[in-house]
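Each record in this resource describes a single protein on a pair of labelled lines. An example record follows, reproduced without changes.
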Amino acid sequence: MNYELYLSLGSNLGDREDMLHRAIALIEERVGMVQRVSTFIETEPWGFQSKHPFLNAAVMVRTTLSPIECLDRTQQIERELGRKKKSKGGVYHDRPIDIDLLLYGDLHLSTPRLTLPHPHMQERDFVMIPLREILPSAEL
């Protein structure tokens, strides 16, 4: 079965635009067919102080993978593109790439590794502005 997976992407180190394009290409190769890509927007870091602004985007992918398979593959992409550590316990830091799963069809999931829909997406303009651009408003 094909599912609509919505992802949030962000980068605040190095060539941010190139990093987002590289991540999107790897997502298409390993997760599913990229159907929609939002405009890239620049935002201030959220939840921590940094002199490095983020470039953020949202993408919609058609996938046949399970949510956990999507998580595993996007985390592998993050590692390959230079991300060394994940944020934990609300402690955030600069990073070359961040990929978050936001929505997976109409699935509601809560496991120790993954919660869908993303529990904090509504609080974050850097997620919601690009997401609203590619997701019909009736679905939010």
